[in-house]
Protein 1
Amino acid sequence: MPLILASKSRARLAMLTAAGIAVEAVAPNVDEESLKHGLKDEGVTARNLADALAEAKAVRLSRRIGAGLVLGADQVLALEDGSMLDKPVDQADAVAHLKLLSGRKHKLFSAAVIAEQGQPLWRHVDIATLSVRPLSDTFIEHYVETEWDNIRYCVGCYEIEGRGAQLFSAIQGSQFTIMGLPLLHLLDYLRIRGILPS
């Protein structure tokens, strides 16, 4: 039985497929925005927010489909002061986000939760720290205009595997984590479960 990805994320599906995992993507039908706002109102940290959103997706879909392993994943971006950025709503918002990130460090928290029969069985949250080089307004505006279709659903407004690499002066952490999934830890669990050969 394939792993069920509770997401329509192109990047996560591509990572799993490239790693040789039989996977099927299904929308979890979670009201993510309402859940996110409620958790933020409760003062939850960026790490715990990513974990809670990943669990909600995995558990919700697992309850719906019954048998099988369901993977939920989410990613949250936090600035050094703990404040969080969401995905941009439009190009002007993306420009504002990149101006805010310019010359500063931020952290990406990428969470994954596997559920079976409606219960969470495994979870991991990985962290990457990224240093954005000082960006000129001209660079930001041109980058957003040319990359908008690729970055419109990306927290942070970049795809590290593409032109987004030009934004950074230093990166600490796994590229998989930056792309939205703690893949190496997930592969370990799938080997333990016998889904992948050891």
Protein 2
Amino acid sequence: MARKKEFDEDAALLKAMRLFWEQGYEKTSMQELVSHMGVHKGSIYDTFGDKQSLYIKTLKRYSEMLEQAYKRRMADTRSAKEAIRVLLEMAIQRNSLYEQQEEFPVGCFLVNTAVELAKHDSEAIDLVHLRWTYTQQIIYDLIVEGQQSGELSKALNAEALSYYFINALIGLRVMVKTISDRKKLQEIIEMNLSVLDC
């Protein structure tokens, strides 16, 4: 009979995610993960696999949290422009993405992964691309809906704009790591949104 796990898998995964997010993949040792997660090394391997497998699992968990947050925050939006604004503002609001009380690092785990592992881990980068493509599709659909409702001009190129906004979103996630001036970040958002007023 299999032994019952003596730890909360999701809580341990979130702790690992936080450590990877703060330090990056390469700088995080297995011993640090053992200490931070509060789980024996053997149990980590049995439950999550090796360090790379654990990293992939934390990236998938982060993506799930991001998707849940998008759906939760966009549920009450009444227009395409408002929904796109919500997406952009989520990038600059610390911990607005998470229901958990624990405070997570500033910035974006996906962006950190793209910067650190682009040339070293194809599985991780595939997950990053998948998430960015998913978000770009959300933006594209919002623009098309806005055009169909008459809110946005049909002269706008929905596909090009969806690429423009995913680029803006990623840029904001980078900027928030070094800029604490909320007003400046909000002005950047307003300038980005102004392209929809054509």
Protein 3
Amino acid sequence: MSETPYPQRTAVSLAASGVPVLPLRRGKVPFGNCSACADNACGGRPNMKTPGPCRCPGVCHAWAAATTDPAVIVSPPWAAAWRRAVCVGYHPGGAGLTVVDLDDADAIAWARNVLPATRTVPTARGEHWIYRGAMRSVNAVRPGVDIKSTMAYARYLGPGTGTMTDLPDAVRALAVKESSPVRPAPHAVAVPTGAGSGECPHRTPTYLDRGIAMAEQRITEASSAVHATVYRTFLAVLSRHGQCGCLTDAHVARLFTAAQRRGETARHCTDAWTNARTTLGL
């Protein structure tokens, strides 16, 4: 019997210790949906921030599919995904943990001045600071700083060094204080939503809502080229949903909020939306 590949071996060990794990493919992203779950056929919200009712036995639903059962990891269809995996992801909130993801030297310097010391893990560009305790996940709470805990996944990069400490109020406060102002003000979304008169392609209101949810996901999971991703996502939404007039300011606000949580400004969101409409002739 051949030796278990490194990612799978690590995953089995983590799962046995109570850490929910999932395989990540190239680009450090989860595996896509199986044919049964494609286009939300399963009724869930694939790879999104809330799990649906899907009971797919595979790795379709990102953090929501993360498992602590070693037997699942070594059995089909998970085993096939682990053979293709390039690294291990885990659900911090499911393990009762919070990861403060520091992307660069400036973010690390800020953390050392503001946050209590805890277990640290080096990353390619910065560090993960891991605290005991779960909270909601928020991206871009300040330059170079993301919070990954519930309804999110982080890359496992080793056990780290130092003693893990309890989640401090200073980190919880970031999610409250820093995430609220990034929501677009009413005038920030006062752009034409594409009130066209074309035939409505939406079978049900849920169809449109799922399209917006998938667009939010695409923006949220962008690991690079965020500007371009936001524009392309806006373009895709408008090309599919902009002709019939079903889009509302509430839909646009959801997209703007997702973009601003990735560091975009309200002005850039408005410009990207307007440019996408112009490109499509809306």
Protein 4
Amino acid sequence: MNKLKLRLQLEQFFLEDIGERDTTSDVIFSDEEQGELVFIAKEDGIFCGEEVIRTGFSLLDDGVVIDLNVRDGERFEKGQRLVTITGQVITLLKGERVVLNLIQRMSGISTRTNEAVMMLDSTFTRIVDTRKTTPGLRMLEKYAVRCGGGYNHRFGLYDGVMIKDNHISFAGSITKAVEKVKASIGHMVKIEVEIESKEQLLEAINAGADVIMFDNRTPDEIKEWMKLVPDGIVTEASGGITLENLYQYKHTGVHVISLGFLTHTIQSIDISAKVHVK
């Protein structure tokens, strides 16, 4: 995770929430009053967000003491104390909601990703995310996928070529689209082509695609079409894949299965925050 970027993001999140001041806490408490803030899990899950906790509270007060009982990627159980933060009561109250919102969502993503990885149960095929992330939270959500045992697809439009159906329609064909890309990009950039038919698959292979995505294809179709794919081309299955039917894709032979639901339809993990005044 890019800690410089995380720091900047958290600054903006705190400014949005605190504004000029915490009108409630600043009036009720003095700077001298100390306390503990304890995050407690209200359900089982996979934890993610330790750097958010450290960076977040240290931005508000570098004197806080953080005691983590669980680390990123580790499993926790309902009722478990996840972390204890000790410091000024004012600081704890100002930072509580922003930090808690983030780690609840990140832990929800890690937990869902781990469910998918365990459901697939493959040492060959990887579970990866997509660009279907919350605007502004992509770095954190993709980090959470890794903590759950998954892998990252491209981070944005800038770090890889993916020629999709609309690109093909505008360009005129897969061949024309790939030719234009190869004439412009450097040798370090991979080219992925999304295909929906056997004819498109053969055209993508002949055009020199590095990665081929089987878009909204059935497991049987993918398994049959994989016989046509030369060694050296990475294959990906995407579209219409859920936790319920994921296991059906295990033996298709694809290298990667990309799942949008890892980040875009997530239920945050329920974590409570309890304060103890010293």
